[in-house]
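Shapes recur. Our protein:

. . .
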Amino acid sequence: MPLPYPLPACSVLLLAGGRGQRMGGRDKGLLPWRGEPLIAHLHRLVRPLSDDLIISCNRNADQYAPYADQLVADDSADFPGPMAGIRAGLAVARHPMLLVLPCDVPGLRPDLLRRMLAQAAQHPEQTLMVRQGEHWEPLLCVIGQQHRAAFEGAWQAGERSPRKVMLALGVQALLCPANDPQLANLNTPELLGP
């Protein structure tokens, strides 16, 4: 269903900076799925939404560069988790809103992303997280630039959970049904398939 107004300008952050523990240490965003790296599927999905596509990666920058307008990396070498990638993305994002997605959800549909941005724009003072049934999906979120200092302060205080930071800031939920197939994380070799 078309939206009655244009979507807000946003930056997009694709999180591909993990250590890939469940993938035997391989760089998850570059693993093939249906003949292409996972990052290629996400790139195709989000490219129409933004002229500021940021990829958070901690290795293989040359392989990620063709899919991004900007690359960022964590400011420590020990793979400190997605909160570090979100901080790095907020630091360079060129638009007031940052749409954050993990690299391992290639089944996302464009209408979900449009709904996320439209709902976030109606209440820009809050963060937005997808909620699947009773479960929050903190890496499927929209964060306003005005929250950058709060994320940085939480990080400096030792907080490593983006979900806790967003809940503390006041969050709006974009509701999805439990077990929504488009939200499936392909984060093990078995889920990626042959």
Remarks:
- The beta strands are 10-15, 32-33, 36-37, 53-56, 70-72, 97-102, 127-132, 135-144, 171-176.
- Helices lie at 38-46, 61-64, 82-92, 110-122, 148-156, 162-169, 189-192.
